[in-house]
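ok trying this again, last paste got cut off
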Amino acid sequence: MNTLYNRIKDLAAEHNESLAQVERELGFSNGIISTWKKGNASAEKVILVAKHFNVSVDYLLGEKSSANDLNVKPKVKRLARKMDSMDDNDLDFVDKLLDRLEGKTDGKD
């Protein structure tokens, strides 16, 4: 098995996702990731997987030994992916919530 497949499989497990779930979420054909054990993936698909898991393409291809330089926890990466799809109102709400959690309220609510 090659590095690309193993890293995707491990990342999916860390995120409590099956490879089939990852394929569906990314619009890939069923079983495509498993074919990468022996074959090559297109650059476009590798980029989509990297964005999905919030890791670098270099990591997926085995050029880096850690998923990213910050060693971000899987739950934080998952939250970041969800926030990428939020509109400005939702992002403002999350920002205010974080301020409250940090004790930085401005009294304007």
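PB: full thing came through this time. DSSP finds seven helices and no strands in the chain.
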